[in-house]
C-alpha cells in the first residue's frame, strides 16, 4: 500500500505543475499571483515530504536536493504578491535554487534517466535565465523564450516524480 505522504507529495507536485503552467499564460495579475501561490504551496509541501522520504531512505544527496528546491520555491512564493517586475530579485534567487536542487536530485541514478535528463535541461535553462537577469537582461518570470522554456521541462520532471511515487508500492 502506498504511503499517505507519497500520495500528498504527488498531489502537491500535480497542483504545482498544473497551476504553475496555467499562471504563466493568464493575463490577469491577480489570477496569476493566486495560481502561483497555490502552486508554490503545493510544491513546498511536496518537496518537504520528498526530503523526509529520501532522508529516511539514506539518500542524502537527493534529500538535500529536494530541500534546496523547497528553499527556491519559498523565495518564489515570497515574491508572488509583489507583481512580475518587483518579484524579479526573489525570482532569480528562487530559480537559481531550483536549478541547484534539480541537479542534486538528479545527480544519482535514483530516478529514471528520462526524468534526470528533463531535470538537467530545466536546470540549465533556469541557470542561463539567472545569468541573464544578473547581467541586466529585462527578463520577467513570464518572458519567452527564457525562462518560460524551462517550465515544460520542470513539469515533465514533476510528472516523472509523481509516476515514481504512485508506482512505488504496487
Q: Report the average pLDDT across residues.
A: 96
Main sheet, how many strands, which sense, barrel?
none
Strand content: under 5%
Secondary-structure element pattern, one letter each: HHHHHH
Q: Distance between termini? A: 7 Å
What does the radius of gyration come to?
A: 15 Å
Secondary-structure-derived class = mainly alpha
Count of β-strands: 0
Enumerate the spans where pLDDT stays under 50 for 5 or more consecutive residues. none
Q: What is the 3D shape?
A: globular
> How helical, in percent, are the residues?
over 70%
DSSP summary: helix tally:
6
Description:
The protein has 170 residues and is an all-alpha fold. 76% of the residues lie in helices and 0% in strands. It has 6 helices and no strands. Helix 2 (29-56) runs antiparallel to helix 3. The mean pLDDT is 96.
Task: Provide a brief overview of the structure.
With 170 residues, the protein is mostly helical.
